[in-house]
Amino acid sequence: MSKERIDKIISSQGKYSRKDVKTLVSQKRIMLNGEIIKDSGIKADAKNDRITINGEALFVRKNIYLMLNKPKGVVSATDDRTQKTVIDLVPDEFKRKGLFPAGRLDKDTTGFVLITDDGDFAHKILSPKNHIEKKYMATLDIPITEDMKRGFNAGIQLKGEKKCMPANLEIIDTNTALVTIHEGMYHQIKRMFGCYGAKTVGLHRISMGNLCLDKSLKEGECREITTEELQKITE
Q: How far is it, in rounded angstroms, from Cα 69 to Cα 113?
């Protein structure tokens, strides 16, 4: 049975700092297996012991996975001195050390961003060899053509880059297309359309793997991804 200091266990979940835990202990608001604790340094087993704070059980997660509906104007970074980041949008109840966006969306691109503190999982879904598909709704300033569709399907050669993997382009209407890619080169979709003299005026990520953005999430909102949903990303 592996045990750690209770202040370390609680602070690892993001809501309380170790200083906060010390204060809660002094106020007799933390219990371990039904007993009020008097020392924030007491050790507990996060998996098997029952820790309560203000009468509410603490559910300890090793890692956290969040689905964010990113709005325009927000950068996909952990912190930025001048601009709002996707981490700034995470509610306090989900915040913890080590959170980062698993993959980036441009500042003006909206939609599904996965935020986590699990580096191994992020590497797995971002590794080019795993080819996790990502779907986007793209809006152009000119009509979408069958020539674009054929080019995307064959794989487009970007200037100064290796040739893109074949991508799927489904024409939705005159200026809108559903684009599926399996890699994440810099500004890839915008540059692919740029090869046809088109400007991408709107780009919205709707899915990663087989997991779609929750339609009930408003822009700027996020929620936890369930274990079952997480598996859909790598299916």
A: 7
For 77, which DSSP code? S
Q: Helix, strand or coil for residue 202?
A: strand
Q: List phi, psi (to 5°) of 142.
A: -135, 165
* pLDDT tier for residue 145 given thresholds of 50, 70 and 90: very high
Q: Is 106 a catalytic residue?
A: yes
Helical (H) or strand (E) element with 201: strand 200-208
Tell me how far apart the alpha carbons of residues 40 and 29 are, in angstroms, rounded to a whole number.
11
Residue pair 122/78 in contact (Cβ under 8 Å)? The answer is no
N-to-C CA span, the chain: 33
233: three-class secondary structure by DSSP: helix
Tokens 């500042």 -> residue: 107
Question: Residue 6, by phi and psi: left (phi above 0), alpha (psi -120 to 50) or beta?
Answer: alpha
Q: Please compute, for residue 103, the number of CA atoms within 13 A of its CA located in the half-sphere on the CB side.
A: 29
**Residue of 20, 106, 108, 214 marked catalytic:** 106
- Return d(Cα 229, Cα 232) in angstroms, integer: 5
For residue 177, the surrounding DSSP H or E stretch is strand 176-181
Amino acid at residue number 84? K
Lowest mean pLDDT among 76-85, 121-130, 177-186: 121-130
Phi first, then psi, for residue 57 (nearest 5°) are -65, 140
Which 8-state DSSP code applies to residue 186? Answer: T
Residue in the structure block whose two tokens are 């906060």 = 20
Name the pLDDT band for 35 (thresholds 50, 70, 90): very high
